[in-house]
Amino acid sequence: MNLIQRIDALLPQTQCGKCGHPGCKPYAEGIAKGEAINKCPPGGQETIAGLAHLLRVPVLDLDTSRGEAPAQLAYIREAECIGCTKCIQACPVDAIVGAAKLMHTVIIDECTGCDLCVAPCPVDCIEMRPLVSVVPIVGGLAANDLERHERRLKRDRARLRYEQRNARLQREEEHKLAERLARAKRSTPMDAIPVDNHQVVQDAAIKKAKITVAMSRAQLHKSLKAFGHPPTFEQQSRLIVLQQQFEAAEQALATLEVGSPPATSTPKDPELKRAKIQLAMRRAELKRAQEQSADTQQLATLSAALTAAEQNLHEAEAASEQPAPVLQRVEKRPIDSQLRQLKTALAYARADFSKLQRQPGTHADELNAAQRKLDEAQRQVEAHMPRSE
């Protein structure tokens, strides 16, 4: 095992990107080249101590400018899920299951708590809940020793799932490229001009650039939502870097699209696109400030920034050659807050009962009490369902 692999084995394998790298393995490569060992909030001091021991360097304090990352798990409020699959695409370890237009749910045992699924959700039905771990003393080992052993096993499993997901995505991309080549060959007569493989490769490069733009945009929005208002100097520096990465990705995509033949659809106006992104950012800032009960002056400043962003969008739409979108108002069915609370209580009761079943040495009285609590929660949900329909 080389140095990069040994460093990577100590990282938490959340693939969250809070260290400034797209994953744990790139950060391990950076550490091997001399980068600081205190940039991993999910790993905390335990990871810093392990890296310092491995590399024989001084133990540093955690770089808190990158935010905090306590042990947590993603939870989907299933009554609000619309089945858009965006969270499934964002999860780096395939810990979310579901299908298009169907409810999604999180595999609790596989979730790494990276919170990358929160920002892409268009209805904000995903929340991060603290991870509560109760490990009994078994065979004379202390609870913290068993917890460290469990964390190591989970790191190894998360790394394996991450690598398997990347391999699967690579296979799917290669399969799609092969299908495009096959379709192009079938659509061309045998005695006609050969298929332009260069154009197929160009299309694949454009698609990859679009994915990069989408990922950098999601990272920027996630950071805007996670950082405080106003952000610290370090957070502002991080936002500037993310904004530059996003603009560089957009520029790379525009460069590729210049050399490609004109598409049949209407070309996108970069200024209009930028105005839409700025409007979404201002809305997210105002919403977060309202949730944190910010003072009146700050709310007024953010509201004015939102109004200016809306005006800029209107001006960009007027200057754009694209047709104005046809807007339709959709009346959404109101969510029954009491039913949602009952379903949440039911989910907690089910999780507690399942946890007690998995724990060795659980007393029968505790298991029976959890079963009664689960039955009562199920009964309340069923009793409320007819009134909610």
TrEMBL record:
Q: Which PROSITE patterns match?
A: 4FE4S, 4FE4S_FER_1, 4FE4S_FER_2
Q: Where is the 4Fe-4S domain?
A: 1-57
Q: Where is the composition biased (Basic and acidic residues)?
A: 372-389
Q: Which Gene3D superfamilies match?
A: 3.30.70.20, Electron transport complex subunit B, putative Fe-S cluster
Q: Which domain of life is it from?
A: Bacteria
Taking every annotated instance into account, which residue ranges of this chain make up the domain 4Fe-4S ferredoxin-type?
A: 72-101, 102-131
According to the UniProt entry, the coiled-coil residues are: 143-175
* Region entry Disordered, spans: 355-389
The answer to keyword Oxidoreductase applying to this record is no
InterPro entries (alphabetical):
4Fe-4S_dom, 4Fe4S_Fe-S-bd, 4Fe4S_Fe_S_CS, Elect_transpt_cplx_RnfB/RsxB, RnfB_subfamily
Record key words, sorted: 4Fe-4S, Cell inner membrane, Cell membrane, Coiled coil, Electron transport, Iron, Iron-sulfur, Membrane, Metal-binding, Repeat, Translocase, Transport
In terms of SUPFAM superfamilies, this protein maps to: 4Fe-4S ferredoxins (SSF54862)
GO molecular function terms listed in the Swiss-Prot or TrEMBL record: 4 iron, 4 sulfur cluster binding; electron transfer activity; metal ion binding
One Pfam family per UniProt: Fer4_21
PANTHER family annotated for this entry?
A: ION-TRANSLOCATING OXIDOREDUCTASE COMPLEX SUBUNIT B, OXIDOREDUCTASE
Q: What is this protein called?
A: Ion-translocating oxidoreductase complex subunit B
